[in-house]
Amino acid sequence: MRSLILALIFCTTAASAQYKDSSIFKFPIKMDDVVVKAVRKGWDVNGFIRRVKNDTTFYKAFKGLHITTFNAINDIRVYDSKGKVKASLYSKTRQTYAGGCRTMQVLEEKTTGDFYTRRRRYNYYTAELYSFLFFTDGKKCGENDIVGSGISKEEGGKNESNSYKLKQLMFNPGGRVTGIPFMGDKSAIFDPSVEKMYDFRLTSDDYQGEECYVFKAIPKKEYADDVVYNEFTTWFRKSDYSIVARDYSLSYKTLVYDFDVRMRVRMTRANGKMLPGYLEYDGNWHVFTKGRERVKFTTQLSY
Question: Which domain holds residue 18?
Answer without folding.
Answer: 5-54
